[in-house]
Amino acid sequence: MTHNQRIVGLNLLLSISGYIDSRVSSSGWHSYQVASLVKGITSRLNFDARQTQSVYWAALLHDVGKVGVPDKILCKPGPLDSEEWQLMRLHPVIGANIVKNLTQFNQIERVIHFHQERYDGSGYPEGLHGEQIPFGARILAVLDAYEAMTSDRVYRKALRHRKAMDEIVTMSGKDFDPVVIDAFIYTVKASFRAS
């Protein structure tokens, strides 16, 4: 694949991701907002520049697989039924398959594939738990959940920052890695002090 083909592929993926964000979040910037939180948390966790870049790009493209989910499910204002959830749970696999074809993103394929796994093993698509889940995917899970909670969605209104933080903290050790939660809390507090 030539450099120009990679650039075209990247721009296409970013456009698809932006389209999906415009369908699922009121801001239309969900993936960019998730990505904006990456550097602070990866710095706290002593990630090097390459590792940070992988999580950043995974954040930008983590929902690209929702292109394979019908709009009637993606934009449904109420709860999904079991059949609809089966389709929704395919989006990490679809997304990973999409990005793996671009050689510059082969490191983020696993992060995207496993970003819906839960620390206690209750997530999808594989039901991995604890440190079986790639570290970048454990980070992305927290950032994705926080940003989704604090923005309006078709199925519910946004939570206030404090309420979302309380919910994230209660999920430490269940949905989320406690080490990642600690780094996330530190990063958010530092961000609020700086603003």
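That was protein one. Protein two is written in the same sequence-then-structure order:
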Amino acid sequence: MKKLTIGLLAALAVVLAAYSVVAQPAGGPGGGRPGRGGFRAPRMPLVTALDADGNGEISAAEITGAAKALKKLDEDKDGKLSREEFGPRFGRGRPGGRPGQGRPGGGVASFESTPRPKTDAEKKILAVLDDMNRNQRRGMMNVPPADGRLLRLLTEAVGAKHVVEVGTSNGYSAIWLCLALRTTGGKLTTFEIDKRRAGLARENFRRAGVEEIVTLVEGDAHKEVPKVKGPIDVVFLDADKEGYIDYLEKLLPLLRPGGLVLAHNMNPRQADAKYVKAITTKADLETIFLHMQAAGVGVTLKKR
């Protein structure tokens, strides 16, 4: 994002706020609730910046103070807002979302954090992951970093000893899983159909120092998955979406009670309806959907 001057942003924000007052009468769609005599501003990042009292409405006083409010965001005091200054406050929290849509219905972004290595070994692995994210992402269909961190967190939280991943690619998500398995004493079995990607994954496992806890199986996972031995603690699906239901049927019997099935790209545009129905209608499963950096992750618990 090119830097935008504070004056330009302020002027645009005033126009947007004024438009919302003219176009959205109280009680109408997007307007204030009946009986309050006000107007509810649309959920836009510039308007959010002006909303000093956080009540979701823009008063005349807040419009007057637009330039001053936006100036507070300009941390380097250069009269412009960079992407770093503008973006983190409003985020991109929901699938297909624009800045200002950090939660359903809009609003400010959620909090952010970065990984903090506890050991030198963890620092080395995180450095490899960062390099992969910067230099190998194109064409690999890797999970976003936040989704990788979620995989590590959930895998370590359940004390997983055996994780099965379908869809290795270059090994990015697998290494996140290995961050957890290093501490739990577990192993990863991962499946990749593409020979070139499998070779790249092996090299990345070696760079990260996790090759001893990974078994990479080349070939069609639909044919190879039935060879897996249980019990399994965590299943991670990130391959052909229409194949998720087949992987679920083959691996669920091997998943221990209290184990998790994690499925990537669980959003209306990509998810397979048969898989969604299976994980949301079975009485022995409990599923929630997390909107992680627009991709979407399905988290399914096999009940005890």
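The domain at 120-302 is CATH 3.40.50.150 (Rossmann fold). Keep this in mind for the problem set.
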